[in-house]
Fold this sequence. Notes:
The structure is a homodimer.
Chain A: E1 11-14, E2 23-26, E3 32-33, E4 38-47, E5 50-56, E6 65-66, E7 69-71, H1 78-90, E8 94-105, E9 110-119, E10 130-136, H2 149-164, E11 170-173
Parallel strand pairs in A: 4-9, 8-11
Antiparallel strand pairs in A: 1-2, 2-3, 4-5, 4-7, 5-6, 5-10, 8-9
Amino acid sequence: MKYCSTCGHPVEQRVPxxxxxxxxxxxxxxxxxxxxxxxxxxxxxxxxxxxxxxxRAIEPRYGYWTLPAGFMENSETTLEAATRETWEEALxxxxxxxxxxxxxxxHIDQVHMxxxxxxxxxxxxxxxxxxxxxxxxxxxxxxxxxxxxxxxRTLELYVEDVQKEHFPVHVDDIRYSMKPQGR
Amino acid sequence: MKYCSTCGHPVEQRVPxxxxxxxxxxxxxxxxxxxxxxxxxxxxxxxxxxxxxxxRAIEPRYGYWTLPAGFMENSETTLEAATRETWEEALxxxxxxxxxxxxxxxHIDQVHMxxxxxxxxxxxxxxxxxxxxxxxxxxxxxxxxxxxxxxxRTLELYVEDVQKEHFPVHVDDIRYSMKPQGR
Lengths: 183, 183
């Protein structure tokens, strides 16, 4: 951020009065431009015990398999965002079972939230952001070609919870590591 | 938003190629400025069966009682944000028990998340944004002077769940109503 989106003058980084963090502040109109984490919402779409995954047609991680998910938009709920993304990326209609994982990724200022969901029919396809979509039995999940750490963590938890037949809400963090997990 | 924060030229509202929503797009450098919901994180801080509430020293809702909560910052988790806000507003140190409520407020592009928490001692006080803080027995909660609908909903759920001795994660929405609930 270099310019004020309100008046077009340059911004500087300083700690506003009464605050304790550096913010972008306009040198002219003094508007404080706060920056906050974004939510990525998605589903674990299940059909007869198999999970629907999407092979990404866009960067980052082109060609890797992902759960349908994307940035939550203004004016919607995380559940609406999750089902919208499932439709857009997998052309799949789902009913949501429950909120399943909330995974913080603080080094990129994101919170990923996945809902457990059930396909309403065997109809699905590849949306514009997917090369293909496919149902995977749990033993066939392509672990070496998974897109993002939050998708991997959610799938790992799901496979464990299927054994236990119990699907609680999991709150977890993925911290930056010097050995990047492929992103 | 009137100006591009990257180059300072005016922005216009249009649907970028491959998108289906109006976005602010710079007429000069073509940067797309996405806008996304923000997370408010807080706690239900409990000490020996009583809930710690804060009387707001700032607008909106100056003088009303609230649970400690505030906007999540970059580089933190919702749990870290919730405990930070509890410290800043109530000078209270807590241990978090579990994620408790996730309440969407889509008409103001916010998601409020409250954790159940236990004070580590009877020490608390009024931070800069609080006029006073006080422990309330459940039967003494000042229902007529509660700050925001998400705080009210969370407190209502908590009072119910204390009866049931069961505190599941609640996912809920508060939609705009023509009869505003005081905000």
